[in-house]
């Protein structure tokens, strides 16, 4: 689901309510004018015995009321005209909701990491430092990186249409500027490239829905709250599978209890992406696509409380008062990475988002899997281990991972939270990275509409066979939301 500041339908419903209220007020004022004129005529007929001065004063009072009513009607007409002029319509004359979060991130990162502005895991210390001609040491590049970036800005468009095949159609698309190369030198932060994040079309009924588009894996649909990790969500490579993959989903509520508890089942067919090439590949086709089979995922969930009728990403604007969702998922895929043989990609998962108290939320995910790098950060970004002499590839990486985050909304404008995630890889699979742990604490503040600010501290520890890499990251963000 799209972030609530970019959700479809909300702004449209507000505009419809505003227009309806304005029309009701306009009708009331027109009736007031009619009754005022009628009252004036009746008063003129019944006051023939009154003095001339009293009759003139009454007429002046009613005339003043009529002038005020006419002025109010004219103001409402102007407001309705402005509202109609600002509505964005598609070629099919449907109203579309445009939204954005323009965000600048300032960051300080210590030690070596895979990406300095949004680090997921640490890199080992350089074994050999460069030298100048003659063997003179070139010195050290330092251990800190300070920078600023606007490439985590997000743009979205959404629409919602009632009475489509007996249900509600919801569609949205979202972009950011996190495209291009994420690592290495260059102008990627000075001149960020647009990138498609998600594109979704969903037809929803009371007890089911059909979804087509690009979204996170069905078995890992949650993300932690963070303004520092937008281009890549938080706790990636530490328990969070996040890749936006083209897919088809079908959801159905099997049981709806009077207390508002819903038991549902979901199934998805996903693009078979493994982030690996076959050793004999000549056309840069992904090894998952070379298998000729799609990825398959299923999930059962139970939902209760506010928002129980919908399953999807929670809000980072308001944590709500009650309710939650717990799900159990399964993943199966095929990867043709060496010769004509096929390796199995599989996982079982559990996810939960529970309001343990008013405005106090716990969310998290965990999984045990094999060869799930293509789902986004699985195996700490590793698909296969190191190969032995004479072998084409190493064994598929098996890993166990999970993350958890506690969020508290102490005030309607302030959300604070902290969490940790960890990914441990099976040593027998000969991985390069054995374990990765990420912990963070954050503040998200909306002091006044449309401003949004955030502060986050993150520590990453990545264990290798001969050393442990540690890195700290401080991120200060400032932006505005439309």
DSSP summary: helix tally: 3
Task: Please give the oligomerization state of what you see.
Answer: single chain
**Helix residue percentage:** 10-25%
Query: Low-confidence parts lasting 5 or more residues at pLDDT below 50?
Result: 4-13, 37-42
Chain-averaged pLDDT = 86
CATH architect. name of the largest domain: Beta Barrel
CATH topology of the largest domain: Porin
**What is the domain tally?**
2
Q: How large is the radius of gyration? A: 29 Å
Strands, total number: 20
Write the layout of secondary structure elements.
Blueprint: H1 10-46, H2 52-86, E1 88-89, E2 95-110, E3 131-132, E4 136-137, E5 144-149, E6 154-164, E7 167-179, E8 193-204, E9 208-215, E10 245-256, E11 262-270, H3 287-290, E12 295-304, E13 324-338, E14 341-357, E15 360-370, E16 398-411, E17 414-425, E18 433-445, E19 451-464, E20 468-481
Antiparallel strand pairs: 1-2, 2-5, 2-6, 2-20, 3-4, 6-7, 7-8, 8-9, 9-10, 10-11, 11-12, 12-13, 13-14, 14-15, 15-16, 16-17, 17-18, 18-19, 19-20
Helix pairs in contact: 1-2
Key traits:
alpha+beta, Porin, 482 residues, 20 strands, globular, 16% helix, 16-stranded antiparallel β-barrel, two-stranded antiparallel ribbon
